[in-house]
Structures are given as structure tokens and as C-alpha cells.
């Protein structure tokens, strides 16, 4: 069956390596900090000026002055630091972040990403997403495979305004883990109980399926 948002985040947490500096975008990516293994050291960065984010706080232990870029309350690990946005974006633009995890509304088979605007809906601007996709070497997207109408969000070409071009390396959805190779999606893993045929039907873009496709491990 399709994964929950927590399960998507738990699968992405397996991509986080010891010693990584990781930026977490708004939405599903913020959940990743809850699932990183205890035996590795990872520094989570939030673009509003935090390095050393921990898991979400327990109810009743929230500090309203301690938030992430999505305005959610967070915890800070021992040794965490706080700084202004200029310093935060110097880290991002200077390519000091090893892994960027973002949400998206659409991803194209060539690695384009659209995650900031739906035409006709008011938005404040692209924000830090543009800097993240322009500077990051390793971008993983966490998202739902289809929209509420059941239409694919894994496309041949994005229909929404782009945030970045040819930048996404891997996508983890509620149905599958996909890499982007040779202008196509490659199916690496599937959600337990989901068939390859279901994933193919939910993917508008070109999908490479070779050999046995294992279930996701968490």
C-alpha cells in the first residue's frame, strides 16, 4: 500500500550519511530529522538560520521562538548555532551543504523541479528554494506520486513554473524510489504491496524498469 508522509521521511533518512550537513525544506522533508539513525552524526540546517536542528518537540515542550523555515517548532541539539539569513544562504550558495531534501509539486524526467507556485494562487515569492536548487549537488525530493485527482506528478515536462532545471537526483514518493538517469525516471524500489504496474500507471514520464524491483526498506 502507499506510504504515509512519515514513511516517506523514514525512507529518505536512510540516504543521510555520517558527517553530512543537510538542508530540510518545507513539508515532508522536515520529518526526516525524526528518523535519522542514532549512531551517526548529522547537522540539519534550516534556511531561516539554524544549524543543529533536532526532532520535533514533544507536546508541551515547544519553544515558540525556536522554529524552522516552515514556521514549525523544532528542537536544537547540543552545540546548535543560530545566525542571520545572510550567513545561512552563504552556507547554501557556497555549497557547504551535502544533501538538500525538498518537497515538490512536480518533477520532470530530466530533473527539473516545480515547487514554489501554482498560477492563480497568491504566493510571497520563490524564497530560498531557488538558492537551494541552484547550489546543491545532491537533491532528493519527497512528494506524493499523484495529485488529489489521481494525475501523475512525475512528468515528461513540468507544467508549473520551474524552481530549478536538471537538478533533482532522486525522488521518494508514497509509491516508489526513483532516480533520474538519461532523461528518464528509473525505478529503484517500490512501496510494500504496490505493484510495478501501479507505479507505471501513475508515472507520466518515461520510466525505466529493469530486473527485480525490491520493496523499500526502512
What's this entry about, in short?
This protein has 218 residues and is an alpha/beta fold. The chain is built from four helices and 13 strands. It has one domain: 3-Layer(aba) Sandwich (Glutaconate Coenzyme A-transferase), CATH 3.40.1080.10.
What does this structure look like?
With 218 residues, the chain is of the alpha/beta class. It has a single domain (5-47, 84-208), classed as Glutaconate Coenzyme A-transferase. The chain contains 4 helices and 13 strands. The longest helix has 9 residues, at 5-13. The radius of gyration is 17 Å and the shape is globular. The two termini are 15 Å apart.
Largest sheet: 10 strands, mixed
- By CATH reckoning, the class would read Alpha Beta
Task: Indicate the CATH topology.
Answer: Glutaconate Coenzyme A-transferase
Given helix and strand content, the structural type is alpha/beta
- Report the mean per-residue pLDDT as an integer: 92
Strands of the widest sheet, in order across it, are 4-3-2-1-5-8-10-11-12-13
Radius of gyration: 17 Å
Q: Low-confidence stretches at least 5 residues in length (pLDDT < 50)?
A: none
Number of domains: 1
Number of strands: 13
**What's the architecture in CATH terms?**
3-Layer(aba) Sandwich
Helix content: 10-25%
Strand fraction equals: 15-25%
N- and C-termini, Cα separation: 15 Å
Order of helices and strands: HEEEEHEEEHEEEEEHE
Layout: helices, strands, pairs:
Elements: H1 5-13, E1 21-24, E2 43-46, E3 50-53, E4 76-82, H2 85-93, E5 99-103, E6 106-108, E7 113-114, H3 129-135, E8 139-142, E9 154-155, E10 170-172, E11 176-181, E12 184-190, H4 196-201, E13 207-208
Parallel strand pairs: 1-2, 1-5, 5-8, 6-9, 8-10, 12-13
Antiparallel strand pairs: 2-3, 3-4, 6-7, 10-11, 11-12
